[in-house]
Amino acid sequence: MSTAEDISPYELALGDLLDGSHELRPDQIPGAVRETARRLGALDAVCYVVDIDQRNLVRLDAPEDALDIEGTLAGRTFRAREIQDASGDLWLPLLDGADRVGVLHVVADRPSEALRTRLRWLASITAELIVTKSKFGDTIMRASRRFPMTLAAELRWALLPPLTFRNDRVEIAGMLEPVYDVAGDAFDYAVDADVTHVALFDAMGHGLEATRMANLAVAAYRTARRERLDIAEICRIVDAALVDEFGGYERFVTALLLTLDHHSGVVRFILAGHPSPLLLRGTRVVGELNGTINLPLGLGIGDAVVTEVTLEVGDRLLLFTDGVTEAERPDGEQFGVERLRDLLEQAAMAAEIPSETVRRLTHSVLNHAIDLRDDATLLLLGWRGNGQ
Q1: HSE value, Cβ hemisphere, 13 Å, CA-based, for 239
Q2: Would you say the pTM of this structure is higher than 0.90?
C-alpha cells in the first residue's frame, strides 16, 4: 500500500485537480488549471476554447480575448495538434480523443522535458474538464459563440454527436454551416465493436420546420440503430416516422445511411435522394460511391435498395449535402463537385488530419458563397483497417 510519502508533489497536484473536479463549476476551470500548472512548476496557464465556427481560439475566462486560428502559434497548435514552444511560452493542444477542444497557453522558465510531460497530462485533464463541465453551465458555450444563435440552430447543435472521432478502426470528422443559422442538415454516427454507422440528413426548407424534420429523422435513426436492425429496416423506420408526423409530398428529407464493417471494409449504403459520397484513395479522388438513388425519406418509399462496396485500408469517404456543391457566388458560379474534389486531393497531399481537412473545406465553401442560401454539411469517414 502506498503512503503519502510515496506521492510526489506533482502527482499530488494533478490528484487534487481530479479530486476537486467533481464539484467544480465550469467558470472555475481556468483558475483551477492555473493553480495546478503553478504547482507543476509553470509560472502561469491560460485556457482557450475553439469557437463554434472554428476560426478563433477564445480565452475561457476573458472571451473578448480571441486569437485567430490562421497565422498564430496558438492556431498552429490547434491545427496540427502538436505542442509549440516559443522561448518558454508553451502552447499545448486540448484534445478530447481526436476532438480539438482548444489550446492551453503555459508560461514556463526554461521548461524541462519532465515539466513538458507534466503539462501534457494537465492539458489532457483540462480538455476532459471542459467537455464534461460544459453540460452543467453556459460559461463554456458562451465563450465558444461569437454571435447570437437562432432557435433552429440551437435545436440542431443540441442533437449533434461530437464533431470528431478516431480509434484504431475508423476516423470521423464533420462540420455544418451556417453554424449560427443551420436548420435542416444533420448527421449522426455510432462506432461499435465491429461496425460504424453513419447518417447524413438534409430536410427540405428552412427554420424550425426543417429542424423538426431533421431532429425526428435523427431520433428515429438512433432508435432503430440501437435495436441492431439492418440498414434497410432502419431506413424504413425513419421513413415511416417522417410520414406519420409530416406526411405529404411537400415535406421530405434526403438522406445517406451507411454502415462500415471494421474487419472487411465492406460499406453498405442507401442513397435517398442524396448526393453520392466521394472516394479518396491515397491522394486521389477515384470516383463516387454510385448506387441506386431511392426516393427521399418521408414519402413512404417502402423497401430501399442497399448498395455494397468494399474499401481498401486507408480509404476515406467524403459525405456532403447539396448545400456544399450548390453554394453560389453573387455571379451565380457554384462551388461544384470538381472544386470539392480538387480541394480534397490538396488536403490529402498535405497530409492534413481529417478534422483540419473538413474545417478548411468548409471555410472554402463559405469564402466562395459569402452568404449561404442552404445548409452545407461535410463529413469525412476513413477506414484505418481491422485494428489487428
Answers
A1: 25
A2: yes
